[in-house]
Amino acid sequence: LSTDGFDITQELLSRCKAQTEAIMANEIPVGNSASILKAAAGKDLSRILQMYLEVVPPPGSTTGGSGAGSGTKPSSSTTGTSSTNTLGQKKTWRAHLVGQKPVIIVPKGMTAPITMINAHEFFGNSRFVPREVMMKKGFHKTNIPSTFSRRVGQRLGGGMVSYEIMDNPKVKLPTAKDWDRVVAVVCLGQGWQFKDWPGHYSDPVRLFSCVYGFYAGMEGDKIPAELESWAVTKAKLNRDKRGLDSVTYASFWNGLDEFMAIYKPE
What we know:
Layout lengths: L9 H6 L1 H9 L7 H5 L8 H10 L26 E3 L5 E3 L10 E3 L10 H10 L5 H6 L10 E5 L8 E7 L2 H4 L3 H4 L2 E5 L17 H4 L4 E7 L13 E6 L7 H19 L3
Parallel strand pairs: 3-5, 3-6, 6-7, 7-8
Antiparallel strand pairs: 1-2, 4-5
């Protein structure tokens, strides 16, 4: 970044160095130019314009966008099937999804870093606890909560959202409308994970064009070759430094929040 055009001296920079470093240390990026502009066939980039208008009001506007400084929010309907977004466009909501818990599917394999045993601890409490450690503490699938709630940032609508975690979607999601609740899939990087799933959900390429894909591998492990052709976010879990869990946690939620704001706002 350049200071050209601003009345900034070296003395001012030195005086504010500590505060600036503190701010930068707590920043969590929601995306970069590559991730924001990444789009495949059938996807639109209207979210980019929406994000811009939330920060910079249109010319002649007196109320500004829908960001925190404007004091306004996009109108929405809790009982109907449509809403108006920040671009003033009317969009149709899928009524069968309104009020339903979004679903996060995790691997069933015992070798996966994140399974039903430790998924609640990671997604709900931002802490990775190895599966073996959880089991030694007496936890197993039947005594671990499968739902949790978290607050979504104001920029993406705000409020609390409750999620459901599962590893047996074929049993728990019997109909196509139930499968519409799926917003994220944590993958192993092996195609057999999806082979019994219905319709296009069994094809990883098509699957990750309609749900958010996430792969979390242990640091040092080789990334599966199949992942290269899938639209998934790749992240690492450190084997020892639990303070780094928040980085992987933020990577997951930054991506999923953006995905849901665009494709599954219900």
